[in-house]
């Protein structure tokens, strides 16, 4: 007998979508506020880095913990508490008068964001049935895609008209509405933790391991010239991996583990995890480089960049509900795989478009294909990842997918950044010597360009002082072509990442996974 979905359930979806939108928007929205914050706080970009890093680190570390607490004690309770925490921290951030308060506030805000994000999919799954569940997860997937991609647009508008505190204050009224709607309309899930002990050691080692790995990657990103073998980088990465190995050993030997490691014995689950990682490392991390291209080299403002990036983000809004409907009729495996191949083609089109005369007119075809990939894969990732999962583990599966997507994004930003830095410097080394300028100017400018990196090279080359030099045009052309060399390679590497994700989906995913099959697999493992 088909269950009819009520208006109450769709309002519940709205409440959960509002929370997810705020939590993910705050991952990217602060980027466009940094120039204004530099002036207001009388500081440097380096000192402001923790406004970004505090959120990224605490968010990634908290995802699994909040997922487990939701599974054990009720997902609505933890989701609602996360919403309240997020709203309070947002208000504190808007009122912050110094960086220490803002950094701490961002960390607290990230705990709330992680709770909302990690439990939203599981709550939607438990609040909807039948075909409407696929549609609801599709809509949530579209919200995830839009929120991640719309940071420059929303942030640019708020900062331009109201100042940087507005990017935090806007969360207060939206969050309060979400709190009320959640309390009234979202149904609670059973508490599966009755009689279980909290896996404190598992939580501790998972948090420390993820923190160390992501912090090591952040150090490498901020200091790209440090060797991977430097203790500032390798110490954290190796230490983090060892802590995660200890975490796995603990989980295999405790009665009520934080994460059921049997899930990783299923090729289907490994495939969906690889897709989540590829989506983060390819699509999401590339937004950083695309924004830098449009702002630093083409010359668009933050708001103009955000408007043009609607070419990508609008597809999440359009395709999410459609994908939710199609997923009940067609093979999700092949929809995911083909969509990732489409994204690979989009990256290759962007690589072809990058050059001295690059503009939005040459970039948009590739951006459209990348947007279609995001709009298709995100909702499918949710529905496919939840297939056959026991109700007691839905929160944890949601958390794992988000962890791998977040780690993918961090690895992508660092890895693609290193690729760009290497190609940029190699081009400068090969061609800067051909510019007819004094030896003193050559050594000083080359050092400045390398230290500033490809993102800031344009501002040096086109500064007022350099623009009046007799060698200005020749010098500027070398800098532009050096950046283009790096950006083209970044686009090609991103294409390879999503194509590998598409191949993994084609090989590892199953067209349909039933709960009976999962139960049988778990018995066999035991």
Automatic annotation (TrEMBL):
Protein's UniProt name: LrgA-associated membrane protein LrgB
Record carries keyword rRNA processing: no
Main location per the UniProt record: membrane
InterPro entries: EmrB-like, MFS, MFS_dom, MFS_trans_sf
Record's subcellular location: Cell membrane
Pfam family membership, one: MFS_1
Leader peptide range in chain numbering: none
Stated family: Belongs to the major facilitator superfamily. EmrB family.
Membrane topology: Multi-pass membrane protein
Keywords associated with the record: Cell membrane, Membrane, Transmembrane, Transmembrane helix, Transport
Bilayer-spanning residue ranges: 12-36, 48-66, 78-101, 107-128, 135-154, 166-186, 198-218, 233-254, 266-286, 306-327, 334-351, 490-509
Gene source species: Pediococcus damnosus
Taxonomic path: Bacteria, Bacillati, Bacillota, Bacilli, Lactobacillales
PROSITE patterns per the UniProt record, alphabetical: MFS
């Amino acid at each position: 007998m088909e269950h009819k979905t009520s208006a109450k359930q769709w309002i519940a979806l709205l409440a959960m979508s509002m929370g997810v939108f705020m939590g993910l928007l705050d991952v990217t929205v602060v980027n466009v506020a940094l120039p204004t914050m530099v002036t207001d706080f009388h500081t440097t970009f380096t000192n402001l880095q923790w406004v970004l890093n505090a959120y990224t680190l605490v968010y990634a570390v908290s995802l699994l913990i909040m997922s487990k607490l939701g599974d054990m004690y009720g997902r609505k309770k933890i989701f609602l508490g996360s919403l309240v925490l997020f709203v309070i921290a947002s208000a504190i951030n808007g009122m912050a008068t110094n960086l220490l308060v803002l950094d701490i506030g961002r960390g607290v805000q990230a705990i709330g964001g992680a709770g909302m994000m990690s439990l939203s999919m599981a709550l939607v799954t438990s609040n909807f049935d039948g075909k409407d569940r696929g549609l609801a997860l599709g809509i949530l997937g579209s919200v995830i895609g839009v929120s991640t991609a719309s940071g420059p647009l929303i942030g640019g508008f708020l900062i331009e008209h109201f100042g940087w505190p507005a990017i935090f204050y806007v969360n207060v009224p939206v969050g309060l509405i979400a709190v009320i709607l959640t309390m009234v309309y979202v149904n609670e899930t059973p508490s599966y933790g009755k009689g279980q002990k909290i896996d404190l050691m598992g939580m501790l080692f998972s948090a420390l391991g993820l923190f160390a790995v992501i912090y090591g990657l952040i150090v490498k990103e901020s200091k790209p010239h440090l060797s991977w073998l430097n203790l500032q980088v390798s110490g954290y990465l190796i230490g983090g991996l060892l802590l995660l190995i200890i975490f796995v050993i603990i989980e295999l030997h405790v009665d009520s583990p934080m994460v059921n490691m049997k899930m990783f014995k299923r090729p289907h689950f490994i495939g969906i995890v690889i897709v989540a990682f590829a989506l983060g490392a390819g699509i999401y991390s590339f937004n950083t480089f695309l924004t830098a291209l449009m702002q630093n080299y083409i010359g668009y403002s933050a708001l103009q960049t955000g408007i043009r990036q609607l070419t990508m983000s609008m597809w999440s809004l359009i395709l999410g509900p459609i994908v939710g409907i199609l997923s009940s009729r067609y093979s999700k495996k092949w929809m995911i795989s083909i969509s990732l191949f489409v994204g690979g083609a989009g990256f290759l089109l962007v690589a072809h478009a990058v050059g001295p005369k690059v503009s939005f007119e040459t970039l948009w075809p590739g951006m459209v294909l990348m947007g279609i990939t995001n709009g298709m894969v995100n909702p499918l990732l949710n529905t496919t990842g939840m297939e056959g999962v026991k109700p007691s583990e839905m929160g944890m599966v949601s958390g794992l997918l988000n962890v791998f997507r977040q780690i993918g994004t961090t690895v992508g930003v660092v890895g693609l950044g290193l690729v760009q830095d290497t190609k940029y410097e190699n081009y400068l080394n090969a061609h800067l010597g051909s510019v007819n300028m004094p030896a003193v100017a050559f050594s000083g400018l080359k050092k400045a360009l390398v230290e500033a990196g490809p993102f800031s090279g344009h501002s040096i080359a086109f500064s007022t002082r350099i623009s009046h030099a007799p060698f200005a045009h020749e010098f500027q052309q070398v800098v532009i072509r050096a950046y283009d060399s790096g950006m083209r390679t970044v686009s090609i590497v991103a294409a390879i990442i999503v194509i590998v994700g598409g191949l993994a989906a084609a090989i590892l995913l199953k067209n349909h996974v039933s709960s009976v099959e999962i139960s049988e697999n778990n018995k066999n493992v035991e």
